[in-house]
User: What shape does this take?
Amino acid sequence: MSPQLSTDGVTKRFGGVTAVDDVDIEVEQGEIVGLIGPNGAGKSTLFNCITGALTPNSGTVRLDGEELSELPEHAVAQQGLIRMFQHTRVYGEMTVRENALVSTAEDAGLAGSLTPPGDSTRERASELLEYVGLGGLTDVKAGRLSFGQQKLLEFAMALMREPDVLLMDEPAGGINPAKLNQLIEYIRDVNSERSVTVLLIEHNMEFVMEVADRIYVLAHGETIAEGSPTEIQNNERVLDAYLGRE
Assistant: This one.
C-alpha cells in the first residue's frame, strides 16, 4: 500500500538559498511521525510545502496518492490535511466556544461560513472542549487563556475539522512540563481512537522520543536520518548535526 502522506524530491529555494533540498518522507496511515533537526534545518518550510502555504520549486506532495503540490492551502485542508501552528492562531476576542464553532467554517467556503452551526456541531464542540480540559472555560475569551490553554484550544479546533492527517508544529512548546504527559496521551488517543495520522515538528527531544513511532531528521534542508526513536538516539550523524559538527 502507498503511504497516506508523502513527499517525493521536494525542494524549496528562496533566492540563492535552498531551504529544503530533495526531501522524501513517507507517513503511513495510523502512524505518529516526528520531524526534528537543528534550527534552520528546513522543518517549517517543508511543512509549508506540504500544506500548500508554499509551492515547491520541484518535487511532489501526495495525500492518499493524490498530488497536492499545486493546491492552495484551503484546498489542501479540504482534502483532510490540517495544520496546527507553533504560534497559536486563536481569535482572542471570541469565546472559547466560538473559536471551536468558527473553526468548522474555515473549510466550508463562503456559504458554509454564513450558516449557523447545527446542534451536532455544537455538541461536538462541547465534547472536544471537555476532552482537552477547557469545558469549564467555554464562555471565556480566548485571549485571556494562558499560552498552553490556547494550544489546547487550537488542538480542539483542529479536531473540529475532522482531519485525516494532523500536522503539529511544536505542540509541546509553551506547555507546562507537568502537562506534557497529558499532551502525549491526547496525541496517542487521537491517533488510535479517532484514527488521525500525525506528523509533528518538535524541539523537545524527550517528548518526541516518547510519542513518535518513527522520526525523520533534517539538517541544512536535507534528510540525514530516518528510523525508530532508539535508532535516531544512537545515530552519530544526528548527534553531529545537533552538536554543530555537520
Remarks:
- Residues 92 and 142 are 5 Å apart (CA to CA).
- The first strand starts at residue 5 and ends at 14.
- The chain has two domains: 1-80+165-175+192-246, 87-162.
- The two ends are 35 Å apart (CA to CA).
